[in-house]
């Protein structure tokens, strides 16, 4: 048996995104094309399946946007995915980001019998990547009821309550961000593990994400 | 015969089949479950949810009798049981932190692979027997099982009938809002109707503030509206709730939590 090269096909993958929804092996994006070889004595049809690696963000940047309108004691953080240097214009829009635990969590506000659940890890939200590789918001912080409960401010007004309260206290947890392209069947890690935190003092709350911190007086 | 040249950092890969192997924890679980906690029934439910992936909601009774209450003297040590009515009155005057008194619960599952109702009924039956009366009952909802309070130690020192706050009949205007806003609305309506504060305590706030719902209803129990929301989101997510009562603040906090699916072979 002898193989002879009788034709060369040039194929270039030009898409700077992972949007193909064709079935592909793990961590691959697929494409397909047909080719016809015409010879004097007939033609032959061929289908080629192309699989290239899914591109993942190298990391993300984060900025504080505002205190959440619905949850005024939690900060809203906005993220921008940064493509790898080898493909700096890569577009992740339309993909889904998620989160998993990247390490242990602490909750120094919690005590046995508390009416508020202990913070034990990330809550597993997802968000769609928008134009500009932005995804938002990531809410980080305590709900208002938890802040009030842990301050134990009854009967109001404080200003310096003598009764027991664990504040100042807070939670810290480790967030591993993940992303899912259309061809993925599950989420894949990207970037470093982010430290998230929420702190409560007698007069203020804090929201922390990936080394950045925002503080506000609450209630105003 | 043909060669294919791919121009790009990504390289041509040969399609290959991939066999996914799923590892399942197949360790045998003992049929006897023992828990110790200020809320032993809630703790036991968490254990069932963890083992079987069931979603079972829980509502605290309103703890009011000193024999059901402990005082937190140190946030890092177990709370100390209140000894008498006068002791309770004293710690209330000092605004000490009060929590349900720690208790234990042991129950036997009907089998190694029990049905959900049978297991929850065994749990509740065992606890009720230890309390000498029907403190809790199991209620089957539209899609979830609910463990709700029925009786609690009253001022007489005997078990007295209580009305679960989530049995409160409310009306919520059906309009598009976030799941978080709906939960807040439900809590607000219960608070107004019962004159007892109920508020969102904890949960997946990212998901709840991003999920839109149009659920509402007239003359429905708060539990049924909440259950409708949980079931609606349940197509994608597995959520449940626990409603905890604080005997010091005399209010309820609604804690929404994930129930992780359990892979069974």
Topology:
The complex is a heterodimer of chains A (220) and B (265).
Chain A lengths: L6 E6 L15 E12 L2 E12 L5 E9 L6 E9 L13 E6 L4 E2 L19 E2 L5 E8 L2 H8 L17 E12 L7 E13 L3 E6 L2 E6 L3
Antiparallel strand pairs in A: 2-3, 4-5, 5-9, 6-8, 6-10, 7-10, 10-11, 11-12, 12-13
Chain B lengths: L1 E6 L24 E6 L2 H13 L3 E4 L9 E4 L7 E2 L3 H9 L3 E4 L2 E6 L7 H16 L4 E5 L4 E5 L1 E3 L5 E3 L7 E4 L4 E2 H16 L3 E5 L2 H6 L1 E2 L3 E5 H12 L5 E8 L4 E8 L7
Parallel strand pairs in B: 3-9, 3-17, 14-18
Antiparallel strand pairs in B: 2-7, 4-5, 4-6, 8-9, 10-11, 12-16, 13-15, 17-18
The ordered string of helix (H) and strand (E) elements of chain B is EEHEEEHEEHEEEEEEHEHEEHEE
CA radius of gyration of chain B: 23 Å
Total strands of chain A: 13
Q: List the total number of helices of chain A.
A: 1
Strand content of chain B: 25-35%
Biggest sheet descriptor of chain B:
6 strands, mixed
Give the helices and strands of chain A as they follow along the chain: EEEEEEEEEHEEEE
Low-confidence stretches of chain A: none
State the total count of DSSP E strands of chain B: 18
User: Quick one: overall form of chain A?
Assistant: elongated
Q: Which runs of chain B of at least 5 residues are low in confidence (pLDDT < 50)?
A: 1-28
Portion of residues within helices of chain B: 25-40%
Distance between the termini of chain A: 83 Å
User: Going across the major beta sheet of chain B, what is the strand order?
Assistant: 8-9-3-17-18-14
Q: Give the count of helical stretches of chain B.
A: 6
Q: Determine the fraction of residues in helical runs of chain A and give it as a percent range.
A: under 10%
Largest interface, Cβ cutoff 8 Å: A-B, 63 and 61 residues
Largest sheet of chain A, in brief, is:
7 strands, antiparallel
Report the sheet-strand fraction of chain A: over 45%
